[in-house]
Amino acid sequence: MTDDGGQAHLPAELTQFLQHLIVERGLSQKSVEAYRSDLTKFFGFCRKTPDRVKREDVRGFLGQERAEGLSASTAARRLVALRTFYRFLLLEKIVGVDPTENVDAPRTFKHLPSYLTSGEVDGLLGAPRTETPVGLRNRAMLEVLYATGLRVSELTGLTLDGLNAEAGFVLVMGKGGKERVVPLGEVAQDWVSRYKRESRPLMLKERPCRALFVTARGAGMTRQNVWTMIKKYAVSAGIMKNMSPHTLRHSFATHLLEHGADLRSVQILLGHSDISTTQIYTHVEQERLKRLYRQFHPRA
Fold first, then answer.
1. CATH of 118-294, one of 1.10.443.10, 3.30.70.330, 3.40.50.970, 3.30.70.260
2. Which of 26, 39, 200, 214 has the lowest tally of Cβ within 10 angstroms?
3. pTM of this structure
């Protein structure tokens, strides 16, 4: 596992595993590189062949990573990479024992991200000057973000073909290339229709563009465009919170739950593949139940 200079060699099985991730599991290059990085760090630490790795090696690696200041979430991700690697080796009968078995992941603490109050949302949405083409476009984008809870990449990926303003929905391309249909809401429908009618033609000047939201140069809006826009309007609306496009996504989810929506419905609307991701908002639902209890229980 080492050369004359003491540098750790990667196990030969790692190349086979990474090829498996690309060919058989269809992972993106970015995901494969993350696996490579995590496994490289581990085998650089323990300097053993995969069949000689013990549970103590895995625990020692995670302990050292945490001692050096690595976050719990990153340490947990590295354990997942190791587990996936060893499951592959077991299936291929390259090893007979999984050293990651019964190794607990470092505890991670999920904090509810910052979200806006209803009043702050009103202030943000009312900040653009809608008498200008750019201001009208920006108002329409803000309304769509709050009405749908889209990720910023999903917003900038919206196309004319994916919009059905009359029926009140948009077709969204989410993470992993998964499509979902998201309701738009009457207010957002009206602003988008007005933008399409009054602003978009002026900005495009007959130049072709599939993107729903466009720039004055005739191209689709970028994520950085949206980020900058929201920061600017937050300042003009007097909102002191740390703002990003995701703040509106969190506000969308929080306000839905506060008004009676259930977690499963919010999961579908947000495009979360796993309900555990949506459970970051559980405390919002619990607070709503407490209010209902205090309101209606005779001995509350």
1. 1.10.443.10
2. 26
3. 0.62
